[in-house]
Amino acid sequence: MAATAKYNRSNPAVKRILQEVKEMQSNPSPDFMALPLEEDIFEWQFAILGPRDSEFEGGIYHGRIQLPSDYPFKPPSFMLLTPSGRFEIQKKICLSISNYHPEHWQPSWSVRTALVALIAFMPTNPGGALGSLDYKKEDRRALAIKSREAPPKFGSSERQKLIDEVIPSQSSGSKCVPFLYLLTTYCFNHRSMSKCSVRLLLSPKRYQMCQTRSLTNYPHLTLLVSMQTR
């Protein structure tokens, strides 16, 4: 991260951010990925996988985190860039761990802590919170599928480059990946029997280890499974 040369590494916020970057890289999560911009380490781009056993399962949701200058003593702000049916896009999200509720924030928390909380928060009742949406489950499922088509477009070319690169490692650290995470090409029609062309991200041997329990949620799908070995 060449641009960090312009920052004072003895600054508590800068020091903490660089520590978190290093920790993220050395201990990646299978559920999310997050990196700061080269030109501004206080702005991060992230992508999270939709929580399992929810209408968001299988989705990839991109977003932006803005860290305050006195981080970690004050909380960050969050916004999603990918339509989810749960949060408005490009609007700050009201969470207990966000800048809307600084009284709840703990300096020991981190970007990792916040993203884990955000994933857990997605299936909860919005309750009229700022930046929240209350779409029907079937609409959220459709948006989850659509979210995999391409990363959202947002901001400068530098931001876009990072957005395009930030994709969670969907099979990292997991012996069995939920079925909806394995779809790379598909054709889906909510109203009628539909065929779905599937390319698996796992080897046939590993696929046999997996329980395709998510299929029970979509009994109207006819699946054409194409096995692919790495």
UniProtKB/TrEMBL annotation:
InterPro entries linked to this entry: Ub_conjugating_enzyme, UBC, UBQ-conjugating_enzyme/RWD
Domain UBC core: 12-167
Protein name: UBC core domain-containing protein
Species the sequence originates in: Sorghum bicolor
